[in-house]
Amino acid sequence: MKIKLAGPLDQTLYKCRLHPKFDQKAFDSAGTLEFKDASTTFPVGSQNAPILFRWRSIGPCMQPNMVPFKLDLWPQPEDKRSVVTVTFTHVKQGHAFNDVVVTIPCASSEPPSVSSAKDSEYHYDHKQKALVWRIAEISDEISTGTLEFNVPVTNRVL
Q1: What Å distances lie between residue 143 and 35, 59, 84, 101, CA to CA?
Q2: Same domain for 30 and 68?
Q3: Of 17, 35, 62, which residue is a domain's last?
Q4: For the chain, what is the domain count?
Q5: What pTM was computed for the model?
Q6: Domain with 51 in it
Q7: Adjacency order of strands within the sheet including 69-78
Q8: Got the DSSP string for 52-73?
Q9: Do residues 30 and 92 both lie within one domain?
């Protein structure tokens, strides 16, 4: 199933990010929202509906050339749990970043359950109540990566 947008966002005025489970190439080339896995369907009428994309206006104070890589977190409620997809995207061409450590607070009563951490390592720091994601390299050659985990839904804030 695909959703065809009426027109593209003006990339000079807006920045758009798709959920990592959606096909970025299809969105960029044809203006369609579709899952990477063609067998996945949109959960119409579901309480677990995913956020399809996020957008924001680009203000004059934004200096994208200063940012070495982007880190996006996509929380999504699913069966009384929060499924969180974390992605990094390399944006500073010609620069490499080694041994990058991302610490994600997890205020739940139990450690997160990691379902995917391709080409990276992770561990749960019980003392800090945080998931620690270690990425060996972010560079032109290794430009994206994803970590997916879930925890019980909580309203607590660290």
Answers
A1: 21, 25, 20, 16
A2: no
A3: 62
A4: 2
A5: 0.63
A6: 1-62
A7: 69-78, 81-90, 144-152, 113-117
A8: -EEEEE--TT--GGG-SEEEEE
A9: no
